[in-house]
Amino acid sequence: MKIALISDLHSNREALAAVLEHAASHQVDRYALLGDFVGYGGDPAWVVEQVRALVAAGAVAVMGNHDSAVVLGAHSSMNEDAAAAVNWTRAQLNAEQLDFLKQLPMSVERDNCLFVHANAFDPAGYAYIQGRLEAMRSLHATQARYTFCGHMHEPMLYHLSGTGKAGEFTPQPGVPIPLMSNRQWLVIPGSCGQPRDGNPAACYALFDLDAGSLSFERVPYDHDAAAARIRAAGLPERLAQRLITGE
């Protein structure tokens, strides 16, 4: 079974369309959508409808902090730009779309895989996995062989051996990585809709469950058009610029 792992879509229609086309060309069997479908970007309704359609067809989807904020209201810890986008986004979604976001689970576990937005140790707290310490805490919190999460907008891979030895790896796009069965793995595919590693190309990952193989992918898309949608919506200019610079 080949699974496309897509996270942090952030209302970016152009990025999601490009990633879905790329994934389809690789004959994926299932999609796992790791949260933050909305926020920041200029086309939340279209993105939510795509996510709803994928879920109806069998995809896994979990709640992200921006999804929760659109449902409940911007959190006080959000910066000014993020809060502005949350408030604007809420007004763009209809009742069915808001209810869909409200009903999203915090995590899903199946086939020895845990899907969650931020981490396994406190999914609703949305703490970031900023390094090996947080990654190991997350891996110790689950029995699943594979944990897939988003929240961090940069691709990363961590592992934990049966003897407690931890490791981390910054992946190269398009290079298959064998995930040895005697280790636990934590996969952060990066952001589809707002990459922050200096490369504006959309991020996602392909996981072959049967082969135990993972590849991180980068997909170029029309980020100028996505930035134009943000400007047309009257959202902060910084949100448009981040798409162009990938930072």
From TrEMBL:
Signal peptide: none annotated. Residues 1-211 form the Calcineurin-like phosphoesterase domain. It holds the Pfam family Metallophos_2. Belongs to the metallophosphoesterase superfamily. YfcE family. PANTHER family: BLL5683 PROTEIN, METALLOPHOSPHOESTERASE. This is Metallophosphoesterase family protein. It comes from Roseateles aquae. The lineage of its organism: Bacteria, Pseudomonadati, Pseudomonadota, Betaproteobacteria, Burkholderiales.
